[in-house]
Write a structure and sequence with these properties.
This protein has 146 residues and is α+β, with helices and mostly antiparallel strands. Helices cover 24% and strands 40% of the residues. The chain has three helices and six strands.
Length: 146
């Protein structure tokens, strides 16, 4: 993910933090792009190419990475600037195989408290068919000094 992948409506300070957070990390290597950024809904895409398992299908772990990326970023947005999200639990139910194209994840909050935030991430193929439903719970810890 690069600075150009961040939607323009995100304020510049948040954009810079997001770019620094994502630079040279797993999300970038997997081709994840954030396409919508809002406190109530975060959307991202990921190519199937180069994220397949040996049988040619989208790897379930790749779907989990997309889900955790979107959920963690949503938790980060919710808790900033004073909190840092730490993943507690990720569960994924895989519904349909995908062999090509791009998948889209839509992350929405289920609960956002002072110390815990839980998000649902629905991943679908290019035809809008569900491929994976995930739930991520994050602990929101105080940001360490410095």
């Amino acid at each position: 993910m690069t600075r150009s992948d961040v939607p323009p409506e995100v304020n510049p300070a948040t954009t810079e933090l997001l770019a620094r957070w994502a630079d040279e990390q797993l999300a970038e290597r997997m081709g994840i792009k954030i396409t919508e950024w809002d406190p109530q809904r975060m959307v991202g895409t990921m190519p199937v190419a180069h994220n397949r398992q040996p049988f040619g299908l989208l790897h379930g772990g790749a779907s989990a990475v997309l889900a955790e990326t979107l959920g963690s970023m949503a938790a980060w947005l919710w808790g900033m600037p004073d909190k840092v999200p730490l993943g507690l639990e990720l569960s994924c139910a895989h519904h349909r195989a995908v062999t090509a194209g791009e998948v889209t994840g839509v992350c929405t909050p289920l609960h956002r408290g002072r110390t815990v935030a839980t998000f649902e991430i629905r991943i679908s193929d290019e035809q809008g068919r569900p491929t994976c439903t995930a739930r991520l719970t994050c602990l929101l810890r105080d940001r360490p000094p410095g």
